[in-house]
Amino acid sequence: MPVALLDPAVYLVILGYFGAGALLAGLVLGGFAALLSFWAGWRQAPLFIQVGRRAFYAATTMVLLAAVVLEAALLTHDFSLVYVAEHTDLSTPTALVVAGFYGGQEGSLLYWTLILGLLGSASLVASASLGGRVAAYATGILAAILSFFLFVLAVVASPFELLAITPPDGLGLNPVLRDMGMLIHPPVVLAGFAAFAIPFSFACAALLAGRADAAWIRHTRRFALLAWGLQTTGLLLGMWWAYHVLGWGGYWGWDPVENVALMPWLATTAYLHSSQVQERRGRLRTWNLGLVMLAFLLVVFGTFIVRSGVVPSVHTFAISAIGPWFLGFLGACLLFSVALLALRSGNPGAVAERETPVVSREGAFVLQNLLLIGATAVVFWGTVLPLVSGMFGGERVVGAPYYERAAGPLFAGLLALLAVGPLLPWRRLRRATYRALVWPAAGLALALVVLVVAGVRAVPALIVFPLAAGVAATVLAEFVRTAIRKPRAILRKRRHYGAYLAHLGLAVVVVGIAASHFGQQEKDVTLQPGQQATVAGYTLTYTGLQQRQLADHADFVAAMRFGDQTLEPSRATYAGLGGQALTHVAISTTPVADVYVVLADTGADGSATFRIFVNPLVVFIWAGGAAIVVGVVLGNVGEAGPAAELARRRIPATLPA
Amino acid sequence: MTRRSVAVGAVAVVLGSVLMLSLVWGLQHAALSNPPVLGRSAPNLAIQTQSGDQVSVAGLNGKPVVLNFWASWCGPCVQEGDVLASASSSHPGVEFVGADNRDTTSGFQAFEQRHPHVYPAGPIVSGSYQSYGVAGLPATFFIDAHGVVAASFSGPLDASTLQHYMALIAT
């Protein structure tokens, strides 16, 4: 019946089948690429290595197709799909409908798979220069990971599941997610997570092929940096979002989901530094392999934690059947990594060879690595403690004080190293080093004196701020010295000076975190219109309450006069979602402090209860964070252009005649 | 293999096993799951009927309640409509409430024209299907005279199943 074929309902159902078909085809191609690549690498068959790689590209194309289909279904409001009906409705703004792609469990897995496929393909394009074996094994490992995700998507948690009856409207997006932060935070974090698979695959491939030299590090450096940069951005955006949307006055709560995003970042920060030791001095081979594997394992672990609901968290994903599958995948990756490290690396556990002097650049990197891994262990233990203790009977949960007390000293040690480490030369100390150390020492002493004179007596503050000043002095002295002597070097040695900028950014972030942590003031007040409240010297006047009815929710808006501006904290009630209420914070930012007002309650007599925070120097966190990202991006863009590298490597990548 | 590497390996295996086992344990005791409403006080929920009256589950305390989640776009909900209607007529001591989910106003009104409810029914104005852990429609909850959820049923009800569950909340 040709008429039925033109019926939009029939066309839409076919769209769902089309997506599911693409996922299945991708799964078959991915599995084929994995098996063929391992076999071809083992047999060193260049033709089949090439075929395996192309099968990976084909699998990625299928994932891309599925992603396009899902996005099309979202944009056309095809509520025959469970996923579309559960995460959007007709009143959802188009930008958030687009974001619905990664707003739920299944879609975000598809997004992750897509990024894995695209970045994996990009990393494979120029991989032939590493030798057939390494390239083939890397393809095989990437394809195996891709196939796992495609299996979960095709069989366990399909975004293309159909409803028996097509409802006229969907359920809509959770109000907390109806925010512009939603448009950028999740995709950046998820893309960062996906990117960690690439250094992992190449590290494992190098070990499998018995080629644990620094070639894989050079090849995947860009991807490790990309993963790290995305993760840095994602963490900052998450903090920014929590601060501006959730309304509890803070930006970091040591929530399990925050922890699992922080841990791979810590491990990769360690790797980005220790890999230089291998590149420069040929040391720490096994350690670097271990770090890259650790980062990826932490990503898989984090995914399991977030999506299985095993630990209580503010980030609720709908519980689904994927928990056991991800646990199995984590177990398989763990076994594979440990077995590879134990069997194929020469000297497990060797962190530094004996002849390395402790006080040197290498020594600083090793110490920095140990501190970072120590911090990772602290965070890891706090995250799994509810599970481990629960298994043995009494469930225990730790909060922020545990993390601050256990990880705080480690972070302070890292800060001290950040001030001194960049000044230490490779191999052994020279006299010039002592002269260079004058700058951080001066910065530290100056800050200490200023703080003491200003009346600060809190010991943590007296440690953190002077150390941050020391870091800043080290970086600024380096920039000034170079700018005077040979200003062109700053552009020529971009990687070096980009890293310095990132260090400076980190010092600024630390100042912002420490100031807002130690100096936050808060006050709960109930005011009648016209009454004032003063917190930390900032006076606000409550001018009145009004109710606004919007399309999908009702807003209670309380107006507060602050200087010449009006702050409007509000409470929104979403009738469609069973009266779910959401707070909209009002923030006035100055370079010195944020005045942060939350509307806690409203009275029938026009009175309103507010919680007012004054958070010093929060803007430093965002500014410093931006400096870190800019430093890393500018430091690495165009270092050896990808186009040039491709052109250089095209010849060995082609088929042999 | 040196004694040291064996010791390192053994420690790694023990730690890895404890970790994996605790994760397995965690999966079986997931912190998030459907809200456990059975045996608990019924979560707050109120609906507004076409005539504008609000009916809340808490306000019916003292009488057994059959709380049915439905929607105008839900085919099986029409199917079970007659069964629910006749049960409500034959059991005047039991209060029936029909909670309409994710519906449009016009959809609700059109449904009431074609299949009028004989008991209070309308869109949810307070509370949420989520607090009952409703995953699909129709879903029916049986609340006893003390306001405790005694049983729940997912999918369209037939007369004998409904009889069975209503016996559980009969006073």
3D structure, described in words:
The complex is a heterodimer of chains A (657) and B (171). Helices cover 65% and strands 10% of the residues of chain A. In chain A, strands 2, 3, 4, 5, 6 and 7 form a six-stranded antiparallel β-sheet that branches. Chain A has a four-stranded antiparallel β-sheet with strand order 1-10-9-8. Chain A contains 22 helices and ten strands. In chain A, a hairpin with a 5-residue loop joins strand 6 (570-574) and strand 7 (580-584). Chain A has three domains: 1-203, no CATH class; 253-422; 521-618, no CATH class. Chain A has helices at residues 2-6, 8-43, 46-75, 82-87, 94-99, 105-125, 132-156, 180-195, 197-208, 215-246, 256-281, 285-308, 322-344, 361-391, 400-420, 431-436, 438-453, 459-485, 488-492, 494-519, 618-636, 642-653; strands at residues 521-527, 532-535, 538-549, 554-562, 565-567, 570-574, 580-584, 586-589, 593-602, 608-616. The two termini of chain A are 52 Å apart. Chain A is of the alpha+beta class and 657 residues long. In chain A, helix 8 (180-195) runs antiparallel to helix 10, helix 9 packs across helix 12 (285-308) and helix 10 (215-246) runs antiparallel to helix 21 (618-636). Chain B is of the alpha/beta class and 171 residues long. Chain B has two domains: 1-33; 45-169, Glutaredoxin, CATH 3.40.30. In chain B, 37% of the residues lie in helices and 22% in strands. Chain B has helices at residues 3-28, 75-90, 105-114, 159-169; strands spanning 45-48, 54-56, 65-70, 95-100, 121-127, 139-143, 149-154. A seven-stranded mixed β-sheet of chain B has the order 2-1-5-4-3-6-7, covered by helices on one side. In chain B, strand 1 and strand 2 (54-56) form a beta hairpin. The model of chain B has no long low-confidence stretch (mean pLDDT 82). Chains A and B meet through helix 13 and helix 14 of A and helix 1 and strand 5 of B.
